[in-house]
Amino acid sequence: MKGEHKQPAYLALQPFGTVPTVVDGDYKIFESRAVMRYVAEKYRSQGPDLLGKTVEERGQVEQWLDVEATTFHPPLLNLTLHIMFASVMGFPSDEKLIKESEEKLAAVLDVYEAHLSKSKYLAGDFVSLADLAHLPFTDYLVGPIGKAYMIKDRKHVSAWWDCISSRPAWKECLEKYSFPA
Question: Rounded to two decimals, what is the model's pTM?
Answer without folding.
Answer: 0.90
